[in-house]
């Protein structure tokens, strides 16, 4: 049986209380909401916080508000199941509801949160193992070692971003809000992520993700497809989020984002350029999917063969774009 390391639990009474504790303990503290990623990694000694700050009392993190001019605000503490069941989400932003149904399984969807999935730790075959297994290879660069076993001569960690919701939020042009005792700051969802397996978030240890602002629906459609070995539980080994705004039958703007092929979700502007000003025809979709295939560079540190996963980029982009047809 794997046991948690020793830690002190602080049940935050409100947002100010949570931010105060995070500021006081810095990198030695971590917040917990659903705990579906944090707790297993504490048991494997991938995370060893001395203080864990509980967020279950913070009702403001579960707020949902909608405005025709401002769009949809989703609190980071909303459970994945709550997102799926929200009438506002399912009615106006169905891609979000469809995406959360592809995450893990119903039990984890009932516990896991929007913020937890957006801040999900990067993953790697050499990292996501028990402490004893990792010790046998002298650990890895991401935790306790100094070598990235994916690319041993590399000066950086190549662990992979495995969040499902991040590619979708980036494709939708969403913004996120972070808070600390120093105040709040907003940034584009794409700016939340760094291309670094160790420092994958542009977020300080004392900052808390408050939520996400989605833009109004204005002639756009979006889709998300996920490749994984099993139909539940498994993390993506490829995620494709596609977004396009139409003027008549022609694509006026587009974003295609690849997940689980690098340490951050990757936008593919070359793919979007192949669609602009044209109807979403078989020919334009084929050109866009080929551009995404060239852009995508998966590494050999997740499930399935690397070369096969690269070929699947072409197919999954093709399917995701076909799903945007009226």
Please give a structural write-up.
The chain is an alpha+beta fold and 326 residues long. It has a domain at 219-326: 2-Layer Sandwich (Enolase-like, domain 1), CATH 3.30.390. Helix content is 30%, strand content 21%. The chain contains twelve helices and twelve strands. It has helices at 15-25, 38-43, 80-85, 87-92, 94-100, 106-111, 114-118, 131-136, 165-172, 269-273, 282-295, 306-322, and strands at residues 8-11, 29-32, 51-54, 64-67, 71-75, 175-180, 183-188, 208-214, 220-227, 238-247, 250-259, 266-267. The strands form three sheets. It has a five-stranded antiparallel sheet with strand order 4-5-8-6-7. A four-stranded antiparallel sheet has the order 9-10-11-12, with helices on both faces. Helix 11 packs antiparallel against helix 12. The longest helix has 17 residues, at 306-322. It is globular.
